[in-house]
Structures are given as structure tokens and as C-alpha cells.
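Support case: adenosine-5'-diphosphate complex. Customer-provided input:
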Amino acid sequence: MKLIIAAIKPFKLEEVREALTTIGVRGMMVTEIKGFGSQSGHTEIYRGAEYAVNFVPKVRLEIVVSDSLADAVVETIRTTAKTDKIGDGKIFVLDVQHAVRVRTGEINDDAL
Amino acid sequence: MKLIIAAIKPFKLEEVREALTTIGVRGMMVTEIKGFGSQSGHTEIYRGAEYAVNFVPKVRLEIVVSDSLADAVVETIRTTAKTDKIGDGKIFVLDVQHAVRVRTGEINDDAL
Amino acid sequence: MKLIIAAIKPFKLEEVREALTTIGVRGMMVTEIKGFGSQSGHTEIYRGAEYAVNFVPKVRLEIVVSDSLADAVVETIRTTAKTDKIGDGKIFVLDVQHAVRVRTGEINDDAL
Amino acid sequence: MKDLLKVSGLTMLGASLFASLPAWAQDAATTTTEAATEAAAEAAPAVADVMDKGDVAWMMISTVLVLFMILPGLALFYGGLVRTKNMLSLLMQSTVITALVIVIYVLWGYSMAFGDAPSAYWGGLGKAFLSGVTYESMAATFTAGVVIPEFVFISFQMTFACITAVLIVGAFAERIKFGALLVFIALWVTIVYFPVAHMVWDSDGLIYGWGALDFAGGTVVHINAGIAALVGCILVGKRVGYGKDNMAPHSMTLTMVGASMLWVGWFGFNAGSNLEANGGAGLAMINTFTATAGAVLVWVVLEMMLRGKASMLGAVSGMVTGLVAVTPAAGFAGPVGAIVLGGVASAAAYFFVSSVKHKLNYDDSLDVFGIHGVAGIIGAIGTAVVNDPSMGGIHYGGNAMGAQIWIQIKGVAITIVWCGIASLVLYKIVDMIMGLRVKEDAEREGLDLTSHGERAYNM
Amino acid sequence: MKDLLKVSGLTMLGASLFASLPAWAQDAATTTTEAATEAAAEAAPAVADVMDKGDVAWMMISTVLVLFMILPGLALFYGGLVRTKNMLSLLMQSTVITALVIVIYVLWGYSMAFGDAPSAYWGGLGKAFLSGVTYESMAATFTAGVVIPEFVFISFQMTFACITAVLIVGAFAERIKFGALLVFIALWVTIVYFPVAHMVWDSDGLIYGWGALDFAGGTVVHINAGIAALVGCILVGKRVGYGKDNMAPHSMTLTMVGASMLWVGWFGFNAGSNLEANGGAGLAMINTFTATAGAVLVWVVLEMMLRGKASMLGAVSGMVTGLVAVTPAAGFAGPVGAIVLGGVASAAAYFFVSSVKHKLNYDDSLDVFGIHGVAGIIGAIGTAVVNDPSMGGIHYGGNAMGAQIWIQIKGVAITIVWCGIASLVLYKIVDMIMGLRVKEDAEREGLDLTSHGERAYNM
Amino acid sequence: MKDLLKVSGLTMLGASLFASLPAWAQDAATTTTEAATEAAAEAAPAVADVMDKGDVAWMMISTVLVLFMILPGLALFYGGLVRTKNMLSLLMQSTVITALVIVIYVLWGYSMAFGDAPSAYWGGLGKAFLSGVTYESMAATFTAGVVIPEFVFISFQMTFACITAVLIVGAFAERIKFGALLVFIALWVTIVYFPVAHMVWDSDGLIYGWGALDFAGGTVVHINAGIAALVGCILVGKRVGYGKDNMAPHSMTLTMVGASMLWVGWFGFNAGSNLEANGGAGLAMINTFTATAGAVLVWVVLEMMLRGKASMLGAVSGMVTGLVAVTPAAGFAGPVGAIVLGGVASAAAYFFVSSVKHKLNYDDSLDVFGIHGVAGIIGAIGTAVVNDPSMGGIHYGGNAMGAQIWIQIKGVAITIVWCGIASLVLYKIVDMIMGLRVKEDAEREGLDLTSHGERAYNM
Ligand SMILES: Nc1ncnc2c1ncn2[C@@H]1O[C@H](COP(=O)(O)OP(=O)(O)O)[C@@H](O)[C@H]1O
Ligand SMILES: Nc1ncnc2c1ncn2[C@@H]1O[C@H](COP(=O)(O)OP(=O)(O)O)[C@@H](O)[C@H]1O
Ligand SMILES: Nc1ncnc2c1ncn2[C@@H]1O[C@H](COP(=O)(O)OP(=O)(O)O)[C@@H](O)[C@H]1O
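Agent response - structure generated as follows:
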């Protein structure tokens, strides 16, 4: 199985979630994060004191899928999250050795 | 070493933490996430405008342990987090290559 | 490529980010987490009801870098985040199989 | 204190108040001939005008209460309903519009609305810059011979202009351009609000004499704002992601706080409109309790019956609905009639915002029209009903219910037409010159960062 | 203005106010024989009653202040103390109970409490639907011949009924069923609050004549609410996870804001209870400052000494404690005596909620009994002490301190017994019919989503 | 009501009010010889003093409004500007300082400021513990023969002492030691505030007779607080991470709410300082609207021009600036002159906090000096300008503008010198004995947890 971690723009979340559901993804974990990358942050000024905010809000998805689905997931995220503007995000793929569904105790692909 | 990632129900956090401490886990990272899975979300209505909220609040644990402890950790989470209702969560196990304790510079199993 | 996960003290974030930029890191994901470890939490008392808060606020960094940069990243975090007090944090290194930049479709080292 | 227990505290749309307004007690030299004549006609010159400090205390605190309705009241009510990224934009709009309208009111607004010019459409510029008004100047109340300091009267009226202007912004929240909004508001109060206030409230005004009942400004404030809001949100267009994205209120807590402050402040608005601290103000006060309570209960019960759950947004929507509906009726209805009026308005607004609005398919972000417009119209017409003795009303004006209803409908209609057309023209002008709407990217990122360079929360 | 500097502004539990309440100024035809007789007996019929607009202004703003105490004050104070997932439920309960009690008050509450029936237990239904009350109706104050509009008096009293009912909900916060709560409150105000108010405040009332001192309603409001709260939370049972889960307040910020609003509004509650704007009201005002300040300091110092740190929750708990304690004593104590009273009540409540309560092992979520009940009792009895000239009090009523303490204890005891038993029965009835408590799953998920279908924050 | 339209509501720094303050209406036996003489000199003994309930109502609500400015107003304004981890510390400091100063005021503060001692520096301890004051005691107003209850006067003045003390804490927010702060404040009000109030406001006071104009306390409150703040933050030193870490306000929302409450409450502060509900209060009221509005617009326009975006923090900074600036001028300026005064002060403060301050390189966390100090000084001197008939002022006192400016400058200078030196000494003493600043680790972790053992939010 693979763990796919993706950082995307927050307003793309709903669209990506729907697209992934279509190709058979049945679960994921979503975290609000601060992203740092080539997309620059902004400057805030408070009564003359300037603060460079280097982070931009992003949403991070974690999806564990069977090896066979992994490529489709990466591809779907890539095409759906894309706006062609800087800061669209990254996708990373890692190996997962073991998966368990708490409720039933099912393991690996059955747990997803 | 293994990285164990688990998504569980928020109100189970304290119980799981305690159980893990008992079997020798000495550290973890806890993140509040939005979970998507077979447990359905809910619908909110604001002056007649309906919004389907597809995500349910979950808590995500990340625990790095020595290989020998990994199975016990998975088992402990599975039994403690279980309520037998849908949405109890998932446990994933990944390989960790290297670990460092910032304060002392100790590495790998000594760092945990 | 490597995924480097680090839990550090929140007030060290800016310093660590700058140090990493210097050695060539061009992106990262930052999450606010609750950390559990040997650093003890605190007790809060509300009208006589005591609550042990076992978690301390930490910041979690995730950085994906090419294999060649990984050691330098670990070393930089270790030295910069260090205060020599308990709770300085941990660094974990995992293998990443694949990386994609959403905007351009570039992959692996080019995507970072 | 001889007139203490006389009938008082009641008013008629455009009734004697403003006719006798410029009846200076001391400073007769500054009054115009017209005003002097009016004063002579209405207040027997032999009786010296008296200012009762109880009235002054009441009118000052009422003025403060209306400001409280806007800042922080309305600002929070609106702000809580938008998404986090647009919170400050609503707070800013409320704050800066209030400041802007205050300055305009002093410079030319008061004069245009309540000045001495004998025109049917405006008060002229004779009192521009409040020229001639001193701390000794007095303004008449609804009781002959009873006056209050003109500065207090001006302050009270000024807050009404402010809140009306701020009410509008809810309609195109989350997408309006800040600078353009300020220009629009400056034009709108000048071209729409002051003339309508003059036409409705001044003895020379066009609508004066129709005999419509409007105790505290349901027509001038709520219908006016509701119509300007409706026109505005249609012209500006729907929010990006409308109907698709989750646009749930970012803080129902703050919305509830804002609504509560509206209720609290509304006693200044309604009972203050009596201009005197007496039994008439007491009637307006109790109705402002009961109509609101009735409206809350009706909305809550409807939601329980139709959806199984009563929501906080429902309860506060009912609350505002009741407050709007009772505004024109506050001094005329009986406390039980007011419950009914609030309840009916609540049911109507509920039906409108949860069903009709979606069919009409426009994006009035915070339902300014659905709440203020709809309840304002129900309230204006319903005032004729609850004023009737059969409903426990005091039968002010003495018309039969049917006749009074017809008068009320005419008053509402003229306001809708005038405000609708004038607002449309003004929006178009501002849109052509500077554009009413922010860029799509800015809307996505949120107005707080893109228009104001700040975030509401850095938790 | 001849009576300007006379002793005034002081009251006795059930004293002359309500006896002479129906002393209509104009509308004698509507007064009942009983009322007319009473009025005749107490106010020399030759002297025409006068309404001073300064009193009217003060009583209207006092009424507004008491509403402000509830919405948003108490709602925020309570809401901030619960967990995020139950925030809206507290705000909703506060809002809808307020609306409900307003409607009930107009329909039958006022009549039951202050109607003309010569019963010792209730006022009858003669004034149901406020029948016979017009904007010309006047209610007596504590000074013979000085009256205020009855609508203002009704509004003021109405807010007291509302806040008493809302106070109760803190005890079983985070687990009560919304619909059942509303039914319980409707019954409770009818069976407990109105009769107790009548028995205590009406000249025909059972407790009338005992000579107990209660300036602004410590017994009727705070002890009543505290007892109903205690009975309720014991019956409803502890929260799931009580003593195990972290139930820390989700927003101490909002709790502090709510507490501050309570303090601000309490001046309407206490100084407003004087019914006139004079030196007596001024005494009630300064005591509402000093007792509260003393109570804050004592709680803060105790926490510093016993725990090393003074907490915000401690400071606001002290604040509310002081306010509750001074309520019955506000017009009788001297400013320094009030500091002492507030300080003693604060120490007692501190001891109770941080120690005694845990031993008794019940779950009064927001310490309604521990704060309002305990401080209410200390305040009621302490009133006899601080009223004494030796403590700088004005020695109202003239009893020796010991005798007065005994009278106060009797008054407290009867309230506890009556309210305790009646509340118990009503809870049981509602529980049998519809169940008082939500399902465990719903409690876990939080009442906001499960009872109201919304979340307080979508940040 | 004969004096209804007379000039009134105007005051002079240290003018007749306090001279005739102890002119008891009834209780002549309690007045000292000095007071009796003064009273005799100033109020024709043949005319009986009258208390108008309208004045009493207005002064009571004004008092409540000033408390509202502090709790929750100023607490939120300040709290919103700090980082989450220090939120409660600001709320606590505001709450406990208020409580502390209330108790001190009753024990010795009132006597020191307004007691009967014939000293130029303090009022003595003759009225310590408010001895001799009863609910029948009356205090004079600015109109001969018009009095208000002394308890009301004390309450009103007490809130001014409280807010001045709380204002200071913004300067060293996020690093001050809680216990040390309380000790400092207790000393500061005793050694600085009460004597300065006496010197400035009492007829025996040192500064009395200079003829400086200060309607509502710009000098005593704002300059005093601003100087103490400046000295304090320099002594305490910069925050850890200052100029490096992001110290953005954790909730601009709450800051806006607090600022709005300041505006709302400031009507009590300014128009209440008139002590009567009449046209003079009306003038103070409208100026409190217009100066503030002008200041908001100027700051907003400056930010738009110089930075391209108008920020919420800018708008509320302008708001407070305008309020501070108009405080000494509220009853003297015309409404248009007030706009100008507010605007000028706003521009000056903008320039100061966004540029001068950074060059001076000190860390006044919340710009207490930059806003209150700077606008206080501009306002104090500008009062001489806007009071001039050429600017639409009422020309109170009758001096030529130049002469009056010179008088104002002298008043400001003496306040700065006295407050600066005395504050410095007091800070040093407290620092030596207990240390003013928390440990660096505690500062990093935040004062909420380390000083108060709680967190502001547990969302
Ligand atoms: N090396 C990295 N490791 C982890 N996350 C990264 C890395 N680089 C970028 N990211 C994440 O991807 C987001 C987008 O990256 P950015 O460089 O800003 O734009 P783009 O993907 O268009 O080149 C960042 O905000 C960050 O959250
Ligand atoms: N494929 C997946 N990848 C990552 N996280 C998942 C995945 N499936 C489920 N989860 C997480 O587990 C939670 C519980 O899963 P769900 O399918 O709702 O119930 P159950 O585990 O009882 O089948 C989800 O809310 C989500 O956070
Ligand atoms: N086994 C672990 N797995 C995951 N995260 C850990 C683990 N141990 C510690 N951490 C993280 O590192 C942080 C610091 O660890 P702690 O044991 O408190 O101090 P130190 O690193 O100084 O020994 C913790 O708060 C937690 O977030």
C-alpha cells in the first residue's frame, strides 16, 4: 500500500475530494497546515511594525491506497488541484507496510 | 523503527494515550484532523442553504517506536480505540530509517 | 528522496525555517500539534477541578528533500532547534518513493 | 409637571414633530420665517417651551444605544455570518461607513433632511455645517411645549442614517470593493436617504400628509436598506463558489452576540423615537420585548417542526425579524398584538429566506432583503392592523383598519420605487467609474488580506 | 420637587410598592376595589400622583441593562465555560428561554405575580394578557405620590423573571434536552417563580409582613435559581466523562466578557430596583461597585495564597459572587460594609466550589448553586449585618441585628423549601413525559450539532 | 425649570464644581467650615439646592458607561492586540486593577482627591472610608443650585481613576509581573493620580486658577496614563523577540469590539462630565461623534494613500485617537471644529506610531503613549484652538487663542513632569523590592499559563 501526502490550495479541497471518490478512494485524513515554498507569503503591517508572513495556508491530504490505485490517485490530485499558478502544491508517495481497521480488525487492503 | 499513524475518535484520545504509556510508549505527536471515510458527515442548514459537511473530526496520532514494540502499539490502539461503531479509525505502519533526539543528539532507538 | 519529520518548540520555527533556507531547502509543511513526551505538561485548575494537561504545544515540520540534502537538513534542525532543555523535540527520516509538483507535473528531485 | 400624564409619545409619519422642529426657544433670530410661522401655529407662543432633563437623559442614552447597535452590534452580527477570511472587511465597512455618514450628516445631511427650505424634496442647505445650531438650540417633541436640545436630536437622527447605510453592506458581503463602497454610500445617503427622510418626516415633505404610521422608521430605515441591498446584490453578482462551497458562518457565537446587542440597542431606537421619557416610551419598550420574543419563538418552532432542530441562526433571525417588524408599530400596538405582529413577520421571513429566495436565485449574502426588507414591509402594513383597537392597539390616527392598510401600502410602494431606481443608478455609476467588485483571486483569498492587509485572527 | 431630598429609594421585602402598585393616575375606572382601597390607604388621595421623567428614563435604561445582563451577558458567561461543542446550546437556551418567559409574562405571569387577586399565593388572572394596562397606567414607587408608567414597571419586572430562569440552565449544561428544558421552564416560572414573587413582593403575599430585607431580589432571583439548579443537576446526573475528561472552559475570554456585562448590567438590576433616580439609587450603585470589587480581590488573594496563581475564572467567579451577595443589601449597606459583605461571600463561595462541592460529588456544570445559591444565602443573611449602623448601614426597618438575622434566615428557609420541592416535582414530571437528558452519543458529539444542527465556529 | 436654557454644562479645569462640592442640601452639620464657607460664597444661600432626577439618571448611566469602557471595553481592546498566550493576562490586569482601585478609592482615594483639607496637594483624609457621606449628601454641579447625590458623583469619579490605571498596562503588556503590577498601581494612584486630580480639579489645588480648559479629563486621564506608560515600558524593557517574532494581534475582531465599546462608553465619559443632562451635554455628545468620525477617516485615508490599504487596526487606532483628542474639548468645540481636531490628532498619532516610535526604539506594546499620550497632548493644546469662535467654539473662558494655548501648554508640561518623575521613582521601588518583569521562560510560554494557570481558549 502507499501513503500519498499532498499539499494543495484550500479552496480546491472539495473538488479533489470528489474526484478521488470517483476513482474509488474511500477515506483520507485532512489537515490544515502552513505551507512554505516558492509561493511567497505577504507582509502585514501593524501600526508601522512590519511582519513578513512567510507561510501560506494549505491543506494537506493523506490517503492510504492499495498499490494499484496509487498512480491514479496521484494523477487525479495533480489534474484536479492544478490552477497553473504558483503554489499549487506537491504530491509525495511513501510505502506503507501495514494497515488495520480499528472497528473490525481487518488488515491491509481490506482495511482501506 | 516504525512510524505508526492512527486516526481515532477524539474522545478516545486520553484513553489511548494512557494505554500506550502502559506498554512503554514514551512520546507521540497528536494532530486534530478532518476525517473522510465511510462514516458519513452531516448536513448543516443556514437559513435554508444546505451544506453537506463530509468530514468528521478525528484525532491523528503519530508514534515512532522500535520495531519490537510496533505490534504491541498497533494492537493496543486497536483494542482501546474501538467502540464498534463506524468511524472508529485506521492504523497505518511505515518504516522509519533514522531518528534523532534534538536535545542530546542521541539517535535511533535511543532517541525515542 | 527523504521525508524528514521534526517536532520542535514553536518559538524556534522561524529560526529553523531560515537556517533550512540557507542550506537550500525550498519548501516544507508546518502543522501545529500537541506533543507528548518526557517534557511534562501542566495542571489547570478550574474552580477546584484539576485537569492534567499532558500535551505541550509543538510544531511539526515535514520536509521532502533529495537524498543528498537529507543529512544536512537533519543536522541543521538539530543544531538550530536545540535549547538544551527537555522537550526540544525529535527528528525522523523516512523514504519517499515519488514526488510530483502539481503545477508543472515535474517529478522527483525536480519537484522539490 | 402639569402635562405629565397627558397623552404623548405617539407619532405619525411626518407628523408635527418636524413641522415644529425649528421652534427655537431663545434664539428666534436664527429661525427662518417659515419656521417661525410654523412654530407660532403649533405651539401657543404664550407658553414657554420647557426642556425636561429626564427627556434629555433618555434621548442621550437612546442615541448611545443606537450607536451600540451598529458598533459593535451590527458589525458582529454580520461579521459572524461570513467566512473567517472576510471577517475584518465587514467590521471595517461598518466602522468606516459609520464615520463617513457622521461627517456627511454634520456637513450637509442634517440640513438636507431637516433644514428649513420649503421644498417637498429636501431641506436645503441652510443648516449645512450645522450653521446656527448652538447648545441652546432646542428641537420640539411630540408634545407641544416640550423640547429637547437640538444637538441631542441631531445626534439621535444621525445614528439612524448611519445604521441604515451599514445595513446595506450585508447584501454584497465578501465581494465588494472597499473604496467603491464608500463612494456609493456617500452618494446614496445624499441622493436617497436624506431626501426620503425629508419627504417622509418633514412637514413640507412629499409623503407628509398621507397619514401613514411609522413609529420609529421602519420605512426609512429598513425598507430603504432592504431595497438598496436587493438591488446591490443582484448587480454585484453572486459570490464565487455560491451554492457549491461551504459558506457557513465562521462564528455563530459572534452573530448571536451581535444580535443580542441589536436587541439591547433597539430600545433606544424604538422607545427613543418617542423623544420623551413617558408612558408612550414605556409602550414602545414593552412592544420591543414582546414582538421580538414572539418572533423568536415562531422561528424556533417552525424549524423544530419542519427540520427537527431549532438552530441558533434561526433564533437570531427571528429576533431581528421581530425587531424590524415592530419598529413602525412600537408606539401603537398593544403588547399582545405586538407578539402576533412579530410572529407573523417571523413566519413570512422564514418562508422567504428558506424557500422563495432560493427560487429567485440571487445571492444576498446575509439576507438583508429577506430579513429587513420582508419584515419591514410586513411591519409597515401590519402596523395598520395592530394599531386597531380590535387588536389591542391604541388606534392612533383614528382611521378604519382597511383605510389605514391602504395608506401604509402606498407609503411602502413609493419608498420601494424611489429607493430602487435611485440605488440602481448610483450603483451603475460607481461600477462604471471604479468597479464595484474585487478580482476573483482577491475574493478567493479573502477581503481581509487583500483589501485590508490583516487577518482577523492569529491564534 | 419638594420631596427631592427626602428619604427614598429604600424598600422592604414585600413592602408598600406592590400594595400601592395599582394606584392609577388617570384611569381609576380600571382599578379594582381592593387596589383602590390600598392606594387610598397609602397615598393620601388629595395629593396628585406625579411621574418624573428622570425616574422614567432611569427605569427604562435599567430595564435595558437587565436584558443586557442576559443577552449577551449571561449567555456568554455560561457559554464560555462549556466545551466548544456545546457553546451554541447555551446561547440558544439563554435566547429562547428569554423569549419564552417574556411571552408567558405578558400572557399570565405579570397577573399571577402582581395581579389584583386578594390571595396569599398568587395575583390571580385578572391582569392576564395585561388587560386593563394602557400607556397611561401608572405604578407606584417607594415614595408616596411618585409613580412610573406601568408598562415600564412590567418590562423591568419581566426581565427579572427571564434572568432567573436562564440562570438555572448552567447547572445541567452540556446534557439537557432542549425541548424538555423549555417545557420545564414554562412550568417552573408558572408554578415556582410567579407565586414566590407574589408571596414575597405583594402586600397580600404569604411572606409579606415578615419584614425581611431584600433590596433587589436576592431571594427571589438568586436563591430560587440556585436551588432549582441544584435539584436539577442532581436529577439529571453527571456529564459523561465527568471527573475524567478535560472539561476546561472553551473560551475564558468570552466568560470574562460575559461577566463584565453582568457587572455593567447589574447596576440596572440593583440601582434600578430603587424605582427612582435619587440618592437611594446612588447608594445602591456605589455598593454594586464596592461589594463586587471586594469579592474580586478576596478570591484573587485566596487563589494567590493557596495555589500560587490567581486565575481569570477565579476573578470572575469572585465578581459574580460579590454581585449576588450585594443584591439584597444594595440599598441598605454602606460602601465599606458592602466591601466586607462581598469579601465574605467570595471566601465562602470559593471554599464551597473548590472543596465542599467535590465532596458532595454532584455535577453542577457551571456552579450555579455554588455561586448564586451560596452567595445568595450569605447575602440574604448578611444583609441584616451590613444594614446595621455598626457596620455603616442605614438601619432600614430598625430591627436589632440579631432579630433581623433571624427574619432573614426564615425568609431564606421558606424559599429553599418551596422552590426545592416544587422544582423536584416539575423535573420529575418532565422527565417522565419526555426525558430530561439527551442520549449519550449526542452528549459525546455535543449538543450544538445534535440539538441545533450547527457549530459555533467554522474557523 | 427657569434655568433651563441658561449657559450650563461647561467647565474649567478646577472650576467652581469642586469648590462648592460639599454644599450639602440637608445635612449641613456634616460640612466642614471651609466647605460651608465656599458653598456660601458660590451659591446664594437663599436658593435651596435642587436635585433633578433627570440629572441623576444621566449621571448614573454615564457612570455605568465608563465602567463598560473598561470592562469589557478596554480589556478587549488591549487583549485582542496581544498574542493568544497573553490574552488572559491583559483581561486579568484590567479586571483586578479595576477592583483594586475601587476599593482604594473608597478607602482613601476620594478623600485625597476631593476631601476637605485646605492643602494645595491633596484633600486630606477627612473623608477616608467615605466618612460622613450618606445617601442624602449632595454634590454641586456646574450650575449654581443644581446638585446630584454625592454617591453618584463618587461613583462617576471612581471609574475615571480605574480607567486611568488600566490604560497604563498596555505599555508593558506581555512581560509584566502580575503581583508587582498591582503593588505599583496601588502606589501610583495614591502618589500620582489622586494628588494630580486634586491639584487640577480642586479649588485649593496647585494648578487651580491657571485657567486651563479640560472638559472631561484629557490631562488627568490620558496624558497622565500616557506618561506613566512611556516611563514604564522603557524601564521594563523590550519584549523577548521584539522586532523579530511575529507579534501580530491575536484577534483583531476582539480589538474592534473593544474599541467600539470604548466609543459607546465614552459618551458617559465626555457628556457625563457635564454633570447635567442639558444642551451642554448634547454638545459634548455630538462632538464625541464628530471628532471620532473625523479621526477614523483621516487614519483610513492616510493608510490608503501611503500603503494602499486601510487596515482595521488603523481605523480603531484613529477612533481612539479622536476620542482622546476630543476629551478636553468636548463641551467647548463646535461639531465641525471637533472633526478638525480629531483629524489632526489622528494624523499626528499615525505619524508618531508608524515612524517616530520606531526611531526612538522602545517597546510600548500597545502604543499607550503613541495614542493616548500624543493625542492627549494634541487635544489639550488643540482645545484652545477649537474653543475659539473662529473655529466655531463657544469661547469658554474668553481668552484670546494665543493666550489660551500658552495656558494649556503649561498645564500639559506640569502634568508630564510630575507624573514622569513620580512614576519613575515608583517603578524603581517596586522593581527593587519584587522585580517588575517575569522570567524569560515564562514570557516565552506566555503569561496566561505561567501567571494565571489557564489558557484563554480551549477550542
Ligand atoms: N520540499 C517540500 N517538502 C514538503 N512540502 C513542500 C515542499 N515544497 C513545497 N511544499 C509544499 O507545497 C506547497 C506549494 O509549494 P510552492 O513551492 O509554493 O509552489 P509550487 O508547488 O507551485 O512550486 C508549499 O506551500 C508546501 O506546503
Ligand atoms: N484510505 C484512508 N487513508 C487515510 N485515512 C483514512 C482512510 N480511510 C479512512 N481513513 C481515516 O479513518 C477514519 C475512519 O474511517 P471510516 O471509513 O469513516 O470508518 P471505519 O474505520 O469504521 O471504517 C476516517 O475519518 C479517516 O480519517
Ligand atoms: N516516540 C515518539 N514518536 C513521535 N513523536 C515523539 C516521540 N517522542 C517524542 N516525540 C515528540 O517530540 C516532542 C519532544 O519530546 P520529549 O520527550 O518531550 O523531549 P526530548 O525530545 O527533549 O526528550 C514531543 O512533544 C513529541 O511531540
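Chain D touches chain F through 61 residues (CB under 8 Å).

Case will auto-close in a few days if no follow-up is received.
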